[in-house]
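Suppose a classmate hands you a notebook page containing two proteins, each written out with its sequence and a corresponding row of structure tokens. How would you begin to make sense of it? This section walks through that situation. The first entry is reproduced here exactly as it would appear on such a page.
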Amino acid sequence: MIGLDTNILVRFLVQDDAAQASQVDALMQSLSPDSPAFVSSAVLAELAWVLRRYGIDKAQFSDFLNQLLNSPEIVIENEAALRQALSRFALDGGDFADRLIERICSVAGCSRTLTFDVKAVKASGMELLES
């Protein structure tokens, strides 16, 4: 198994650098269920941030994550949390990284996820840490 960094997934999706995109396309074609690639939760959170800068909309981003989730050649860290975060993101939007953080914490058994970010409280179900 090999790990993939965010920029590999960006090149694969955006295809904005012909030489790198060609390399990534060949890499993706070489993967198999017996020799998969691993995508970490950190990469997925960073990917959401980067793709927003590229102007990728919510629907395109959701489609891309669903492709990854449904690919037997890709192993996703915290897959259950990602599926839940993606489902909530598709329904209500908000910040995908906040949704992913909250869901990872929940799946890990946390009773709540605390933040100072008021937007995260509204969009993802985190709780505001107050004194």
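The notebook's second entry, a different protein, reads as follows.
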Amino acid sequence: MPRFAIRVPQDVVTRLQAESAKRGYDSPSAFVRHAIEAELRQGDSALSQVEERMAVTVSKLAKEIRAARTAQLATFALVDAFARAFLTCVPEPANELVDQARARAKRRYEKLLLAVARGMAGEARGALKELSRVED
């Protein structure tokens, strides 16, 4: 068998000696030979396994993104339908009552945002509370 020499730090040599004895190898060289053979056998398959896991992860993420997009489109359609129905069915206030109606609407809107924020968690809740403090 031909010789092949490598240089390794002393701490690696110490760990090799301890691990080879613990696993029942005749010598650290036998342990290193076995490790090299195993790596050469599994090198390509290990890379393939990593690629497969990455492909599965990307596929899952794409599926989740499609689901989120579908939910977003459904939400937009619902809000659009609600806005159309609201604008069709609710008359505008008389000119002399516009300022009073705006003030009431602003208060109701702030209450709505706070109620929605109570039902939310995390960063979205804080962002919604900040929006409710914005002055128009």
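A careful reader of the second entry would note: The chain has two domains: 7-90, 93-136.
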